Amino acid sequence: MKNMNKRFALIIAFTTALGFTTLYYPIGSLQTYQERSSVLSPSPPHRDSKNRTNDSLNGTCRPHDQLVFVKTHKTGSTTLQLIIQIYGYYRNSSFVFNRGNERFGHIHYGNLKIDRLLPPVNVEKYAYDKYKSNFDISTGHLVYQRTLLDIVMKNSSKFISLLRDPVHQFESAFVYFGHTKKGNGSTEVQIIKWLDAAKHDDRFLNNNQMLDLGLPAKDFRNQSAVALHIKKLSREIDLVLITEYFDESLLLLRKLMCWSFDDILYLKQKVRASRSQPLSESTKDKIRTWNEADTSLYEYFNETLWEKIKSYGPRFQHDLQYFKLKQTKLFNSCIGNATSEIVMAPALKIPRLMIKYNTLSNTTDYCTLMANRQSDTFKRLWARQDN
Fold it and tell me: Mean pLDDT, the chain, as a whole number?
């Protein structure tokens, strides 16, 4: 019982570390390990997409396998990226990868061009005509450019993105990109100094979510341009998930894609082992004012999220609790314990203390994919397409 309580404490710590509003059942109230393994233990998805239906949605739809995730910075997006990459890995999907970025496959700002992509699965390199409309999934960082994405993605692709409260996103980016290493004082003191400075030269700290979603920086202070771009996004993007309501958002993703509960299970990625002290309300207001375009964007799509939840129907709370139960059982079926380790950000050379999951000794390959860093799954996907 003592060990079980320790593991429950770890789960609670991980679920709050990124700000996700997730509540899990106490492990002591669940079945024994053997019962958990046989009843609700997660299993790899079926590879045959064409001949499967989703029983959990009463067979009313067929799972959809084509998806563009417009990945935003410091929003918990790596966790969502891994969910989608594992889904595609078991279905032999073709991913949009920049062949010049073997570490992550990200597309550099404004450089989504066919001749810079790794070929789709079973397509020879440089046969660019066969690249067109032949990719199943995009999960890497890029600036949202719908006309260019439509050239490479299959015609039936769904589009999603993920937004985070601009206050939390800004603080996370401020720490991640090393600004706390440049001065003295608490994180909040250094944030105030940075905001009060005359020059702001870091794109990751200036309405970065709106930048990722395609609005030029010159329009960040233009309220009309911001409003028009938000309307454009609302027409073109099928679902915008919200970090603070991550599990609720995943249920909407599951419904949109006709996926199963197992398809949306996750273990959080890139979780800091320690957190900054909460910011004061005055500092939060300063951040929101500086990131006014991001604030408008977030407020709009947070409202649409709850409209979609309302239209989900009366089973929403039942499905949400069932999903949380499966999340707890995923942790118990796959993870032996968790530790912290120092991780060096490749581009920034800044060491960080991050959570590391250690799988059980008799774990499955599926659990290994879930527990390992997203970069490990990426390497498998890259090797498949780098023919």
Answer: 84
Please write the tens of the pLDDT for every residue from 108-147.
Answer: 766 788 999 999 999 999 999 999 999 999 999 999 999 9
Q: Are 78 and 355 in contact (CB under 8 A)?
A: no
Residues 6 or more apart whose Cβ sits within 8 Å of residue 312? 251, 252, 255
- Rounded to whole angstroms, how far apart are CA atoms 135 and 119? 9
Helical segments of the chain, H only: 2-17, 33-39, 77-89, 146-152, 166-176, 187-196, 208-212, 223-236, 246-257, 281-290, 292-312, 316-334, 365-371, 374-385
Q: Are 105 and 374 in contact (CB under 8 A)?
A: no
Written in H, E and C, the secondary structure of 265-307 is: CCCCCCCECCCCCCCCHHHHHHHHHHCHHHHHHHHHHHHHHHH
Distances from the Cα of 33 to the Cα of 39, 42, 160, 297, 328, angstroms: 10, 13, 36, 44, 12
| Three-class secondary structure of residue 69 per DSSP | strand
Sheet containing strand 137-138, edge to edge, reads 137-138, 67-70, 158-163, 239-242
Please report, as a single letter, which amino acid is at residue 385.
Q
Give yes or no for a contact between 158 and 65, defined as CB atoms under 8 angstroms apart.
no
Cα distances (Å, whole numbers) of residue 332 to 49, 164, 166, 326: 28, 28, 33, 10
| Total number of residues shown for the chain | 387
pLDDT of residue 347: 56
Give the least confident one: 21-30, 52-61, 152-161.
21-30
First to last CA, the chain: 50
Residue from 307, 252, 242, 320 nearest 23 by CA: 320
Q: If you write DSSP's letter for every residue of 99-166 in order, what string do you get?
A: TT-TTT-PPPTT---GGGBPPPTT--TT-GGGTTT-B-EE-SB----HHHHHHHB-TT-EEEEEE--H
Measuring CA to CA, which residue among 379, 172, 176, 138 is closest to residue 291?
A: 172
Is the pLDDT confidence value at 239 over 80? yes
**CA 193 to CA 168: how far, in whole Å?**
17
